[in-house]
Amino acid sequence: MVETYVRLLCPECGKDWETAPADLPAPGDTFHCPNCHASRRTSEFMRTDHDLSTLKQLG
User: Fold this and answer.
1) Contacts by 38-42 with C-beta closer than 8 Å and gap 24+?
2) What is the tens place of the pLDDT at every residue in 5-44?
3) Rounded distance between C-alpha atoms, residue 53 and residue 39, angstroms
4) Distance (Å, whole) CA 29 – CA 48
5) CB hemisphere CA count around 22 (13 angstroms)
6) What is the band of 58 on the pLDDT scale with cuts at 50, 70, 90?
7) What is the DSSP string of 2-51?
8) Phi, psi angle pair for 13, to nearest 5°
9) How far apart, in whole angstroms, are the C-alpha atoms of residue 57 and residue 11?
10) Can you tell me the distance from the alpha carbon of 9 to that of 18, in angstroms, rounded to the nearest whole number?
11) Could you tell me which of 54, 50, 1 has the C-alpha nearest to residue 23?
12) Does the structure show a pLDDT above 70 at 1?
């Protein structure tokens, strides 16, 4: 089985990382950057539209 992940990018500090969609809140919920603690909707941290689609399907 292939493990699915989404790529994230903080719009404030530029930190980029990957995580499993199940480890994230829903796209419209608040998420906090683990680096600078910026608070935004989870969808705003998705690096690409594909990552957002993956989160919506599997999150």
Assistant:
1) 38/10, 38/11, 38/12, 38/13, 40/11
2) 999 999 999 999 999 999 999 999 999 999 999 999 999 9
3) 21
4) 18
5) 2
6) confident
7) PPP-EEEE-TTT--EEEE-GGGS--TTSEEE-TTT--EEEGGGGBSSHHH
8) -105, -15
9) 23
10) 9
11) 54
12) no
Residue 2, pLDDT above cutoff 80: no
The answer to whether 11 and 40 are in contact (CB under 8 A) is yes
pLDDT value at residue 6: 97
Q: Which residue carries 């790529």 as its tokens? A: 7
State the Cα torsion 55-18-51-21 to the nearest 10°: -10
Domain locations along the chain: 6-58
Query: Tokens 């480890």 sit at which residue?
Result: 23
